[in-house]
Amino acid sequence: MNNGANQTESNKKKYDRLYPEGRKAKTLEAGAAAPEFTLKTTPDQAVNLNDFRGQPVVLAFYPADWSPVCGDQMALYNEILPEFQKLGAELLGISVDGVWCHAAFARDRKLHFPLLSDFEPKGGLARTYGVYREADGVSERALFVIDGEGIIRWSHVSPIGVNPGAAGILSALERLQKKENEVAA
Amino acid sequence: MKSFTEVERLAVPVSKRDHVQGPSNAFLTLVEYGDYECPACGMAHPIVKAVQESLGDRLRFVFRNFPLAQVHPHAEHAAEAAEAAGVRGAFWPMHDVLFENQDALEDEDLARHAAALGLDQAQVLAEIESEAHAKRVRDDFMSGVKSGVNGTPTFFINGVRHDGGYDLPHLLSALEEAAQEK
Asked: Does domain B19-172 correspond to CATH entry 3.40.30.10?
């Protein structure tokens, strides 16, 4: 559901103009322990990474609610949610937007997974994972797949104007499941 | 970490199960993952036609379903209607009708479109209701997800995801470029 015939190209250019800082932070990679966090997902509910011990978690950092590529990306993940669930994984979207903004965005796009608000201190979690753009004030478009023991097993940072899709997440989750089956057998 | 320059490739090659226009030995293969209710796909529809016209027998075109059903409530049934027409040898006529009537995709509209193409509308509707073609549509969708489809429409040229624009000049020049690489 891109909105214009030349959107992919203009998105790349638009994001480069809006977020000129470029990549600087050193991103956490496979093998690193996933830093613990508690973030609000609604005005009166919080999500803690520890809540999901024993199952894989996908963290999808994105720059902002409402911007076109993010909308596409979250809409895509919303469609694929049953596949993530089949693989036992929990999906969490994360941006620096506040909880009320997330609520309106999630309602508008009919999202069936939580959006976490990395709002106070702004970008605190993104900074911990090495995916914050200090000068731009938003996070990278970054993906992390964390296993049931809280270890990062796969990470990916996409150019900020490019929707990374879900192929990488799914193959990382499938590898995790295969490993688990081997251990069980 | 995956590098920035890594290209996304079609995970499921074109095969007999696909809906194909153009010769099987064509130089160029354009695969579209699309959604019948998506306005951008509707916009791309005449552009693909123009590309086909311009490249003639040098091009093979393949359409696969990628309904974003959460944002487009009619997309799933529309895709299934196209598949129902497909088993009756009328995939492409239905494909055209759906893209040309994106504001008429309720079930009764789908039945009407089927009837206009000379198909048994009650049977087509029954197949939609019994989800007879749902698995086929889901298989298309998942093949897209695994290939790195990241929105609709997403095009693949000779198996590589096309990340540029898809207005006529951009799409045509990307195809011409791919033809020269061969």
From this structure: yes
Say if residues A113 and A83 touch (Cβ distance below 8 Å): no
Extents of the domains making up chain B: 19-172
For residue A105, give the nearest of A139, A75, A138, A85 by alpha carbon: A75
Q: Which residues, 6 or more positions from B172, have their beta carbon under 8 angstroms from its beta carbon?
A: B51, B54, B55
Nearest CA-CA distance, residue B168 and chain A, Å: 9
Q: pLDDT of A111-124, one tens digit each?
A: 999 999 999 999 99
CATH code where residue A157 lies? 3.40.30.10
Check CB contact of A148 with chain B, cutoff 8 Å.
Answer: no
User: Which of the four pLDDT bands, split at 50, 70 and 90, describes residue A23?
Assistant: low
What confidence category does residue A21 fall into, taking pLDDT thresholds of 50, 70 and 90? confident
Residue A82 lies in a domain: yes
Looking at beta carbons, which residues of chain A come within 8 Å of B152? 1-2
**Which range marks the domain in which residue A127 is found?**
27-184
User: What residues of B are in contact with residue A165 (Cβ under 8 Å)?
Assistant: 8, 145, 148-150
Sign of CA dihedral B86, B115, B32, B38: negative
For chain B, say whether A134 makes contact (Cβ under 8 Å): no
ipTM of this complex = 0.79
pTM, full prediction? 0.86
